[in-house]
Specification:
The structure holds two protein chains of two kinds.
Chain A lengths: L14 E14 L2 E14 L3 E5 L6 H8 L7 E6 L2 E2 L5 H11 E5 L10 H11 L6 H11 L14 H13 L5 E5 L7 H18 L2 E6 L2 H4 L4 E6 L2 E7 L3 H12 L4
Parallel strand pairs in A: 3-8, 3-9, 6-7, 7-8
Antiparallel strand pairs in A: 1-2, 1-4, 4-5, 9-10
Helix pairs in contact in A: 3-5, 5-6
Chain B lengths: L4 H10 L1 H30 L12 E4 L3 E2 L7 E2 L6 E2 L2 H6 L4 E7 L1 E8 L2 E9 L1 H4 L13 E5 H7 L6 E6 L2 E11 L6 E3 L1 H7 L10 E2 L1 E6 L5 H11 L4 E3 L4 H5 L1 H39 L1 H9 L4 H40 L14 H27 L2 H7 L9 H24 L3 H36 L6 H12 L1 H39 L4 E5 L6 H8 L4 E18 L2 E12 L11 E4 L8 E5 H7 L9 E3 L4 E2 L2 E6 L2 H4 L2 E4 H8 L5 E6 L1 H9 L4 E5 L13 H30 L2 H9 L4 H39 L10 H26 L2 H7 L1
Parallel strand pairs in B: 7-11, 8-10, 17-23, 19-22
Antiparallel strand pairs in B: 1-13, 1-14, 2-3, 4-12, 5-13, 6-7, 6-9, 8-11, 9-10, 15-24, 15-25, 16-17, 16-20, 16-24, 18-22, 19-23, 20-21
Helix pairs in contact in B: 1-11, 2-9, 2-11, 2-12, 2-23, 9-12, 9-23, 10-13, 11-12, 14-15, 14-25, 15-16, 15-17, 15-25, 16-25, 17-23, 17-25, 17-26, 23-26, 24-27, 25-26
Classes of the chains: A alpha/beta, B alpha+beta.
Subcellular location (chain B): Cell membrane
Protein name (chain B): Putative ABC transport system permease protein
InterPro entries (chain B): ABC3_permease_C, Membrane_comp_ABC_pdt
Chain lengths: ~260, ~850
């Protein structure tokens, strides 16, 4: 997988996440479902990678395994140079909170905490002191200055998603995983959030992996991995939204 | 039902844990209502079937009740006699074939092997009608029922001595027979003499008339004709004749109704409370679905209907179990009452369908009302508001709740405390105990605001570098104040109610014991079998060497009728009636008058009652004795120790002169051994060291106090079951929240720690609230009754109840947390 980089980050040289021969099977009653089928994937540092595919193609399972939330049936996964397959739950949790951030479709902020407390929650859980300069910068970046004392329910969807992104970034993780982050937002707000993702990559060199089924969202990424039936069908560098939509439509018709 | 029933069922299936709580609350509530209902039904329609009087078609007796306006009439414990010559009136009524007078009297039977107490009757009653058993006894003969014969060790042909009401007669046992009633049977004239109906205060009276209706006449019609001729008397047929034969049966029924009435209020309040709490947890869990329903076009009315239907459906699932458990526990409770002596032996409970039906109907009514109010918020919002609010609970509790809650708490405190300050006595205890329940309702209303205030304070005082589990626990309790307060209120209710119920009883019992211990100086108590003691017996005892004082005693009760706001009311008090100068043995704590004047038609009154009723020395009281005799004794003394000796102490002359009753006890000061030796040669008496007389002994809790404690324990169990279920449901609903925490880096151990801290907060606030509502009331009670502000009772009670409350709360919150943490957070987040 080669991508021509436009940032000063050492594009394509360092590896944030590496999957080798990862299989994930579920038992569903008396039959076995193969969600991931021998997937090899390398996510480069400092890039915005999108994972696309029709429903049931395995893209969410890929995200869960790659982030250490779920364990593969076979194969190895490395975050940076640490192999996470075979780690216990508590060790994986510690690794996740040091090195991985999450953003979800439904924001998942804690309703009982203020926006500020929500953002710094990962640091508290890791018993780390916040780096105030970084926090100040981060809040400026996501545009939530002045809203830190509000409750999540007092904010718009876009604002909540930006707070969720700030929470994902606060511990300066190696990778941020985003699962359909624009799924609950209107077109304009979605575009704003995607812009923010892009700026985080280009200005801060953040590695982001985003799962989406929206070709317009995927087209904002540096690299788009297209999945089908638990396998990687295509890896496309900066494809257009039209091309992705076309590709997706073909996959959904079953003509991979 | 409605077309919304189908979605109601589907939603019900999806929210099982919340609904289990509703099922338990409804089932437990139905069980308690059913059990109470069985008490009422037995009280209204039950009773012991007639035995001795079963041959009679109709009985005619005097009313055993003192009539009150708006309240249950007061039942007189002793037989109210009627003039024997009424028989002539009855005999003249068409349809009446024969009339006989029934008398029963306490009697002792002395044989060569000892003395036993029994009851004597006239044979005539048994022989009434076509086929009487056995042969009528002659003038000097007696028929014994086989049980009595076995106890007395007598057989046909033996000679026995009978003693009753100062008479003594020696007769021959003519027959030992299996009779429909127990006791011994004499000829009419012998029975009349021994029963004291030929001379003295009971002269010319009978207990009841039994009527044989001619074969050609209709029993009911004849009874109606007797009723018309004698409207002031009670004419009974069928099973109600049992009440005429067994006074205890009527008393048992009155006890049941009284118990049910006093339990009913608390039970229904608590059941309503618990069902409402369970429903609000369940409805809160479905707020999101309800909001979505509103968004897709359901009207507020439809949403309310949906919730009401769903809750009804769930209630219907719990009701059969509840009703069944109710019938079973009623049976068990009946046994407890028999054991406590509140129900006569052999009085069966009535298990008709009515209590079950009533439980079902009231449960459904409570459920629908509770469901409607729980649904109000979810249904009243606009759809967009509903969706926006669906994931967070209402942020701020409605301000009216705080104001209303505080007002109710203040009001309940005031009503609970005022009588304590005004009137130390049993009424004060009752008002203090019942005042706590509305206080809990107030707490339930004000709870969320109070929780917000307390946790808000805690939040500001958290150390910045403190453990994150505490930080999260405080923030969660603050942010979800409604949820937190729900658990706290019910736990506080359990704790407060237990403390008040138990300490109320024990403090009063302690006050009674303390006053008796200070006021009674008695070395031995002589009990006279059958209450047949007389002056000769007391004189014999007084003449014993080593005996310094002997005071005979009758334990009875009087009814004090009075008028309140123009309505007739009556209060029944237990009374100790003393037959000699009591000052050598008993110090009532005289504040006015002279206890040595307590002879003839006189009484002494305790100071609190005297103050309330505005009575002083020299006044005459209009009282009704236990057998219905109206008397107007003079008040000769006012005393202070009203808890220990009751509101009224009488001269025994008042009782003996008007009713012919004998002494049942003699209190003795002096050499116990000398008294024992005397008792060995005196038939029908037994001796115990110290005081063991009814109404004067120091026997700790009385049977009805035990019954109260059992009822409290059942209520406590129900409340704790309910709160456990609600906490499980509320915690299970937090899976999404736990998942989010784990996704942002919390280890399962951190989440568990957070829940442990939250549980500690909930328990801590519940303990503070529960004790705040109960301990001041109990302290005032202790202060009023005992003179010191710490309540009496087992010192382990409060710690044990606190431990019990925590023992329910911890697993109820931690086990669902552990279960939620077992599943992958990704799944939980997707569900949330």
């Amino acid at each position: 997988m080669t991508v021509s980089g436009t940032t000063e980050a050492p594009a394509g040289t360092a590896t944030a996440i590496r999957l080798d021969g990862v299989c994930r099977r579920y038992r569903d009653g008396d039959r076995t479902v193969t969600a991931l089928d021998a997937v090899d994937l390398r996510i480069p540092v400092g890039r915005f990678t999108a994972v696309m595919g029709p429903s049931g193609s395995g893209k969410s399972t890929l995200l869960h395994c790659a982030s250490g939330l779920d364990t593969p049936t076979s194969g190895t996964i490395r975050i940076g140079d640490t192999e996470i397959t075979g780690m216990r739950e508590t060790a994986r949790t510690r690794l996740r909170r040091e090195r991985v951030g999450f953003v979800f479709q439904s924001y998942n902020l804690m309703p009982s905490l203020t926006i500020g407390d929500n953002i710094t929650l990962p640091l508290r859980l890791a018993d780390r002191r916040p780096d105030h300069a970084w926090l100040h910068d981060l809040i400026g970046h996501v545009g939530l200055r002045g809203l830190l004392n509000r409750r999540p329910s007092e904010l718009s969807g876009g604002q909540q998603q930006r707070a969720a992104l700030a929470r994902a970034l606060v511990a300066r993780p190696d990778v941020v995983f985003a699962d359909e982050p624009t799924g609950a937002l209107d077109l304009r707000t979605a575009a704003e959030v995607l812009d923010l993702f892009g700026r985080m990559v280009s200005e801060l060199g953040q590695t982001i992996v985003m799962v989406t089924h929206d070709p317009v969202a995927a087209a904002r990424a540096d690299v788009t991995v297209v999945m089908s039936d638990g396998r990687i069908a295509d890896t496309l560098a900066r494809p257009s939204a039209e091309r992705l939509a076309h590709r997706l439509a073909r996959l959904e018709r079953g003509a991979a | 039902m409605t077309p919304m029933l189908v979605p109601a069922w589907h939603m019900a299936r999806a929210r099982l844990s919340g609904l289990v709580a509703v099922v338990c609350a409804v089932a437990g509530g139905a069980a308690m209502v059913t059990a109470t209902g069985v008490m009422v039904e037995t009280g209204v329609a039950g009773g012991v079937p007639p035995q001795r009087l079963s041959a009679a078609d109709v009985t005619v007796s005097a009313s055993q009740y003192v009539v009150q306006d708006e309240e249950f009439d007061v039942l007189l414990p002793d037989r109210v006699p009627l003039p024997a010559d009424v028989a002539e009136v009855v005999a003249g009524i068409p349809g009446v074939a024969a009339v006989a007078g029934d008398v029963s009297f306490p009697v002792t039977v002395t044989t060569g092997s000892g003395t036993v107490a029994s009851t004597g009757h006239a044979w005539e009653v048994l022989a009434l009608g076509a086929a009487g058993p056995g042969t009528s006894p002659g003038e000097d003969e007696v028929v014994l029922d086989d049980d009595l014969a076995a106890r007395a060790g007598a057989a046909a042909g033996d000679t026995v001595t009978l003693r009753a009401g100062g008479h003594e007669t020696t007769v021959m046992v003519s027959e030992v027979a299996a009779l429909p009633g127990t006791g011994l049977y004499l000829s009419s004239s012998a029975a009349t003499t021994l029963a004291g109906r030929d001379a003295g205060p009971r002269s010319g009276t009978v207990d009841a008339l039994v009527v044989d209706v001619a074969a050609s006449a209709d029993v009911a019609a004849t009874a109606d004709r007797i009723r018309a001729a004698l409207p002031e008397l009670v004419v009974a047929t069928g099973a109600t004749r049992g009440d005429v034969e067994h006074l205890a049966s009527g008393a048992g029924r009155a006890t049941l109704i009284g118990l049910a009435a006093s339990m009913g209020g608390t039970v229904s309040l608590i059941v309503g409370f618990m069902v409402a709490a369970a429903l609000s947890v369940s409805v809160a869990g479905q707020r999101r679905e309800l909001a979505l329903l509103r968004a897709v076009g359901a009207t507020p009315r439809q949403v309310r209907r949906l919730i009401a239907d769903q809750c009804t459906l769930v209630a219907l699932a719990g009701l059969p179990v509840g009703v069944a458990v109710g019938y079973l526990s009623a049976e068990w409770f009946g046994e407890l009452l028999s054991w406590a002596g509140l129900l006569p032996e052999g009085m069966p409970l009535r298990f008709g369908p009515l209590p079950g039906v009533a439980a079902v109907l009231t449960s459904l009514l409570v459920v629908r009302i509770a469901a409607a109010s729980a649904a109000l918020r979810a249904s009243g919002m606009s759809p967009t508001e509903a969706v926006a609010e669906s994931k967070v609970e209402p942020r701020r509790p409605a301000p009216w709740r705080l104001r209303a809650g505080l007002a109710i708490m203040a009001l309940s405190a005031a009503t609970g405390l005022t009588p304590l300050l005004l009137l130390p006595g049993e009424a004060a205890v009752v008002s203090a105990v019942t005042g706590v329940v509305p206080g809990m309702v107030g707490l339930a209303l004000a709870g969320p605001s109070l929780v917000r205030a307390v946790t808000g304070r805690l939040r500001r005082r958290l150390r910045p570098g403190g453990p994150v589990s505490v930080w999260l626990a405080v923030h969660n309790s603050h942010g979800y104040a409604l949820r937190t307060a729900g658990g706290i209120t019910v736990l506080a209710l359990a704790l407060g109610l237990t403390v008040v119920q138990v300490h109320g009883q024990t403090t009063m019992s302690e006050a009674v014991s303390a006053e008796r211990a200070a006021g009674i100086d008695v070395d031995a108590t002589v009990t006279v079998a059958g209450g047949t003691g007389d002056r000769t017996l007391v004189d014999a005892l007084s003449d014993r060497p080593g005996v310094t004082a002997a005071v005979p005693l009758i334990h009875t009760s009087v009814v004090w009728p009075y008028e309140q706001d123009g309505k007739a009311r009556a209060e029944q008090y237990p009374v100790s009636a003393f037959g000699a100068d009591l000052s050598a043995l008993i110090d009532l704590g005289i504040v006015d008058g002279d206890p040595r004047r307590l002879t003839g038609d006189t009484v002494a009154v305790d100071a609190a009652t005297a103050w309330v009723e505005d009575v002083s020395v020299g006044d005459r009281l209009d009282l009704i004795l236990a057998d219905g005799t109206p008397v107007s004794p003079e008040v000769v003394a006012v005393y202070r120790r009203g808890m220990g000796f009751g509101p009224i102490v009488a001269s025994a002359d008042l009782i003996t002169a008007h009713t012919g009753r004998g002494y049942d006890t003699v209190l003795v000061a002096g050499d116990v051994e000398s008294v024992r030796r005397w008792a060995e040669s005196t038939p029908g008496v037994s001796v115990r060291a110290g005081v063991s007389a009814a109404g004067l002994g120091d026997d700790g809790l009385t049977p009805d106090q035990w019954v109260n404690l059992v009822v409290s324990a059942a209520l406590l169990g129900y409340v704790l079951l309910g709160v456990g279920n609600s906490l499980v449901a509320a915690t299970t609903r937090r899976r999404g929240e736990f998942a989010v925490l784990r996704l942002v880096g919390a280890t399962p151990a951190q989440v568990r720690r957070m829940i442990r801290r939250e549980t500690a907060l909930v328990c801590g606030m519940a303990v503070v609230a529960g004790l705040a509502l109960s301990v001041p009331v109990m302290s005032l009670l202790g202060w009023g009754l005992l003179g010191h502000p710490w309540p009496q009772g087992p010192p382990w009670l409060i710690p044990a109840t606190v431990a019990l409350v925590c023992a329910v709360a911890y697993p109820a919150m931690l086990l669902p947390t552990r279960r939620a943490l077992r599943s992958s957070p990704t799944v939980a987040v997707a569900v949330a």
